[in-house]
């Protein structure tokens, strides 16, 4: 622990999003890590009662470690509450969190920064029910969810489109995105520093189960790609972090097609998972930063109202 004066750290975990179980796992890991790093840790299990969360944060701790994932935890909502209370917190602020969580807004920021993107559009559910929004194959995903929740790949011969539109539980809008063949790459960023490039290998689609189940995927770190591809991915990850105005840690996800040498930025996660199978801790360890040191780094970079 540095001499910054931060001693008492509250850890927010759980939450009310579709990613609650991931947050519970992240939170338990973070609590143990911060305790081993010498902080006085206050665990706060977050539920639907915001008043109870505010009460648990009174009197205020020196900092909050935000281990929440998904809506209300990484979309600017809890960040706004903490800004109002004047409590420094880890990860990105209100604006960057809200932008990153809204895929259409994030892609607009990435396009303005000249970053490589897949063809995409937002379509109403009723339009999706009637016709393909893009040439096949394409991907359907919620506009405001993470961890590959609610993601479908529609290929030639697939007749699920109308059923997916009818049963879509994520609001009236759907993000349709060109499917990019090739490899799944990810790059973690700590402020302006890209840590490494990891290739994620899953037997099928890298969905929620593959991300968080033991053995659901395999991670090659560093990724076995050309040095030029590593450099492009790292540069794009840092540029995406800056385009959204992120602070602290983020993680950028890419697809890379060997045949065309095409690298495409998919999205930026402002609250990367901190579970035993998560990618950010693996990359930090690869760079010589163990998990307690990573969590302490995040705490020491906590801020609010910025």
Summarize the helices and strands and which ones pair or pack.
Blueprint: E1 8-14, H1 20-36, E2 40-46, H2 50-56, E3 63-66, H3 77-85, H4 94-101, H5 103-112, E4 120-124, H6 125-130, E5 138-141, E6 152-154, H7 161-167, E7 173-178, E8 183-190, E9 193-201, H8 208-212, E10 218-220, H9 227-244, E11 249-257, E12 262-269, H10 279-286, H11 291-300
Helix pairs in contact: 1-11, 5-9
Gist of the model:
The protein has 11 helices and 12 strands. The chain has helices at residues 20-36, 50-56, 77-85, 94-101, 103-112, 125-130, 161-167, 208-212, 227-244, 279-286, 291-300, and strands spanning 8-14, 40-46, 63-66, 120-124, 138-141, 152-154, 173-178, 183-190, 193-201, 218-220, 249-257, 262-269.
Would you mind describing this structure in some detail?
This protein is of the alpha+beta class and 306 residues long. The protein has 11 helices and 12 strands. It has helices spanning 20-36, 50-56, 77-85, 94-101, 103-112, 125-130, 161-167, 208-212, 227-244, 279-286, 291-300, and strands at residues 8-14, 40-46, 63-66, 120-124, 138-141, 152-154, 173-178, 183-190, 193-201, 218-220, 249-257, 262-269. A 5-stranded antiparallel beta sheet has the order 10-9-8-11-12. The chain has a 4-stranded antiparallel beta sheet with strand order 4-7-5-6. α1 (20-36) crosses α11 (291-300). It is globular. Mean pLDDT is 93; it is low at 206-212.
